[in-house]
Amino acid sequence: MKYQNKLSVSVMCSDLMNLGREIGLLRNLGTDMLHMDIMDAHFVPNLTFGPDFISAIQNITDLPVDCHFMVTDPELMFGKLKLRREDIFSAHAELTDEAGKPRDYSELAKDVHSSGALFGLALNPETPVENLERNLQCLDTVTLMLVHPGFAGSKMVDGIMEKVRETREYLDARGYDRVEISVDGSVSAERAAYMAGLGASIFVGGTAGIYIQGKKLEDTIPEFKKCIGG
Description:
TIM Barrel; 230 residues; alpha/beta; eight-stranded parallel barrel
């Protein structure tokens, strides 16, 4: 299946003191969605945005929010949000149930879908794609972490881009070709173009691709969009 390639700009890397103005600029330059990293200082060793911040963003833009929950209790986060059509709610596949098996997300996914939003799971670099098996029927997106999560500007794990091809083949072989693959972490325009050829269609742009020192958004966003054919 052919997807429309989309740029999801990382808000964590934005000018937070002038965020309202910057979001307007991002929209005008063709950004497709805003990537929101929500961390609880438990699942990852950092603390970032929360539901109130997401709501504030939703109040000033119609751009979809691409919410990546690096938290131990994604259900709690969902209960504090008002998701919209085309927003994305992504939890982590590493979370387990009481038996130590990958958590069943069917109820959370049902709630997310009832709001009109999309549900996804994220995989850390070392997590095998097979961890998705229990929740395949729930998924709209899979986010592949190309870095160890927690902080902006981290180095890409060697060889990790090939996991895009592996994941695309895994999903397609099981009849889930509609599920889109998002890539997150050290995604430059050139790397994005390569991974688009492997089957990714959502590209999280941060310090490697959009907020590049010495370059303006007016230059980096059009270049990135050109590389992914967006």
